[in-house]
Amino acid sequence: MCLSRLKRGAKPVRSALLPFLSCVLLAASLLVLLAYPAFADQADTVRGMYGVPGDDIEKTIKLLRQARVTHVFAQPQLPTITRLKKEGFRVFLTLNAFGGTEAWKQHPDAVPVTAAGEAISAHIGGVCPTHFAWREERLALLASWLRQFGQGGDAGIDGVWLDFARYPGRWESASPEIPDSCYCPRCLQLFQVEKGVEIPEGLATAAAAAWIHGHAEEKWLQWKKEQITSFVRDARAVIDQAQVGRPIKLGVFLVPWTRGERQGAVTIRLAQDAVQIARYVDVVSPMVYHRMVNEPAAWTGGIAAYFQDMTGRPVWPIIQAEKIAAAEFGQAVDAVAAGGAPGVLVYTLPEMQEGMWPVLAEFSARENLLPNPQFKGDSQVSQEDGRTLPAWRQGNGGTARDTAFLLEAGDDRQGGVIGITAGLDRQGAWRATIPGCDPGKAYTFAGDFHREQLELAGYPAIEVWGREYILNTHRVAGRFQRLRVAVECPKDRGEGEGTFAFINTVAGSTFRLRNPELVEEPVRREAERGKADTGFFALGTYGATVDNLSLIKEIGLNSAVLPMDAAAIEACIEHDMHCLLSVPRDAEKLLISLQQVKEKLTKGRFSFYVNDEPEIHSFPRWQARDIATVLADSQPGAATSMAVVRPQNIPDYADAARYFMLDQYPVPYMPMTWLSDAMDQAAGVVGRNRLQSVIQAFGGSEWIASGWPRLPSFAEMDCLAFLSVIHGSRGIYFYTFPSITAGKQGEEDFRRVVGRLGQLLPWLQQENLAGKPAVEMLSANRFDPQGRPAVHCALKEKGDEKMLLCVNTLPTYTKAAVTVPGSGDSLWREVYDQGRAMAVDSSIHLDFLPLEVKVLKESLN
């Protein structure tokens, strides 16, 4: 970018030194990008105050002391900084990047231009982020602050926060004003040069902006974000080159919006990408001024958690003290703590009321119950016995920012980096002492796990308070994967066993763990259970294309998973199918894609497939929620679905989709109940009305290495499909159409299963009645692998009629007596083979073939 800005005779006149300085800073910042760690240090509890004045400093210090304030934001005045540092405060300055109208007088061409070709009003203000002279003046000011106030050893400033690191807009309102900018001649020229785009010549500003949105929207977004991120990167380089002999933090104040809300305005309009920016800063501070933006105080905690999740950096939200009561201020402080933020900042000191000071003093960062030994240079020192062992490096060279444990599988247990205790025990576990817990209370474990190769032989595990958790979501190899586990303090162990263990029992495999965290969770919000949609039941398939959709419809399916593009949408409308459209898994790309097909979507009925097994890829929770927000705003009322193979992780995504599609594929090595057990576990979180199922319809030579050497039979697919209905499925999809229809037998079996389901479609739309029919097994073959009755049943009702669905989950013959409450001596007719079964004292005796499905309808005559 530096060289490109010297091309084509860029208009701004600059000194000979300024381009050279910009290039030097950019080159240095590239080195910073390569060396900067993936995770910053977690600080101790931070209580910060913004707007600390230089006058009446002694009174101010007394107030700050009473509130246990640790960090202060002051004016760039040496006497004030020196006095505050003498009292032990961490002192920070704020650098305005692109806000206000200060630059307009000296640089008239710094006024941003809107998409309508008009200059930004002074009411909104702001500086065009591509203005070379202003950028370099800002960086020069930062460098001068470091020379003046950063060279005093422990008496110097501790950091600088960037403000207005974004494009213009007034967001601090319930009705924000965020113009689409900047389209000044300089921006249009740089965009074309740096992104290789050619805007047609002769277009007026408004026409050029419209052309960009119609032909180069994604490149324009990327380019705008680069203008902001590059400034942050250059600021990082200035700080790192200052050589003040101690760390100087770089922080940033962020607009407290998620990427999914307000049509993605925080990145698309303001170009403030927290993920990109976080690569170069030590701390992020979303400006959670809840009253200004008409949000409840509890909102501050959700935003804090969102940015912590998004950036991987410590989050010190800045809350407002302005125009709110002390009690409401306390609610905001508590919410930030519950959101997991290690620090809180307050805007601003002059607005603090008497009752707010003690509330601030009580703020405390959420405690990590796990010991967390730190690397020291290229080695790790055990805090227990002082031994030094080589550190395993990952990305940042084994600095103090990269906490890790190395556990080697095998009998000798040698060569492992150890932690606080004496090392590995004979069971392959690293153990540490942790505090006891309150029985029944909820906790969360999180950590970064690494494996070189993905072996199917097993997974690492953790043990917390005497209970073991297999980490079977560890499905990424070659890099660290962030895993989360919901942990409950055992109710039957008093205060709990005070031990944590990281366990490796997989011979020949090495697992690594860093950044372990065990924290108490606030009271978890109950997931929305939802009402059953009795107007539609999906019978669909994966593997659909525009070309095979007609065959899919002819077989009897009413839905299919297809990409969200114009051709697929038109094909679904043509065949009158309620398709499940797979969307981009990025909020910004989704917004752009929706604009391209928005009109077409209004002509049919569609659902949206938002993710595929996100838990085993550690797909970011914040990103999943952003996608859900975009779809809810753009397609109100439309259903969204997400496939999940590990139901224990559904709580992480409970508000990111309406339906969770359980996709356990048991043929030929696992019991049929693998699917139903997963559905039962998922129902405990989101209820049965939010469940769908994916039925195995693949296998064979191409799948042997993955563990599926053959196709499922008709009986197996039929069993799985109806078993899922019995356990609450509100839609069935088969995986996958090309595989099951590749051969004659597979297609015949598939058609038969679909036909049987289609015959019952009006009944499938009905919700299962509460309470399952009682089942008494009458034969020797009676139990599933977990010792439960092998036959599963459910009852449905439509008008005055009732239907009983039962499935034998065993691959052998069995018998059962099924009791239907209130049926008396009713006569029941088998739907598929036209047989009959008499209910005697409400009990129906049924003989089952292996994996057989029986559907009985109560006869009214």
The secondary structure category is alpha/beta
Query: What is the tally of helical segments?
Result: 23
Shape: globular
**Helical fraction:** 25-40%
Residue fraction in strands: 15-25%
Distance linking N and C termini: 82 Å
Sheet with the most strands? 8 strands, parallel, barrel
Query: Spatial order of the strands in the main sheet?
Result: 1-2-3-4-5-6-7-8
Radius of gyration: 31 Å
Low-confidence stretches: 1-43, 373-403, 408-424
Instruction: Say how many strands there are.
Output: 35
Mean pLDDT: 87
Primary descriptors:
861 residues; alpha/beta; 8-stranded parallel beta sheet; 29% helix; disordered N terminus
What this model shows, in words?
This protein is an alpha/beta fold and 861 residues long. Helix content is 29%, strand content 22%. The chain has an eight-stranded parallel β-barrel with strand order 1-2-3-4-5-6-7-8, surrounded by four helices. Strands 20-27-26-25-24-23-22-21 form an eight-stranded parallel β-sheet. Helix 1 crosses helix 8 (217-241), helix 5 (132-149) packs parallel to helix 8 and helix 20 (714-726) packs parallel to helix 22. The longest helix is centred in the first third of the chain and has 25 residues, at 217-241.
Secondary-structure blueprint:
Elements: H1 17-35, E1 46-52, H2 57-66, E2 71-74, H3 78-86, E3 90-96, H4 102-106, H5 132-149, E4 159-163, H6 185-195, H7 205-215, H8 217-241, E5 249-254, H9 265-268, H10 274-278, E6 283-288, H11 299-311, E7 318-320, H12 326-338, E8 343-347, H13 356-361, E9 375-376, E10 379-381, E11 388-390, E12 404-408, E13 429-433, E14 442-451, E15 461-464, E16 467-470, E17 481-488, E18 499-503, E19 510-520, E20 538-541, H14 549-555, E21 561-563, H15 566-574, E22 579-582, H16 587-601, E23 606-612, H17 621-634, E24 640-644, H18 650-653, E25 659-662, H19 673-686, E26 691-696, H20 714-726, E27 731-735, H21 737-740, H22 744-759, H23 761-764, E28 774-777, E29 791-798, E30 801-808, E31 814-819, E32 827-830, E33 836-840, E34 843-848, E35 853-859
Parallel strand pairs: 1-2, 1-8, 2-3, 3-4, 4-5, 5-6, 6-7, 7-8, 20-27, 21-22, 22-23, 23-24, 24-25, 25-26, 26-27
Antiparallel strand pairs: 9-10, 10-11, 12-19, 13-18, 14-17, 14-19, 15-16, 15-18, 28-31, 29-30, 30-35, 31-34, 32-33, 32-35, 33-34
Helix pairs in contact: 1-8, 5-8, 11-12, 16-17, 20-22
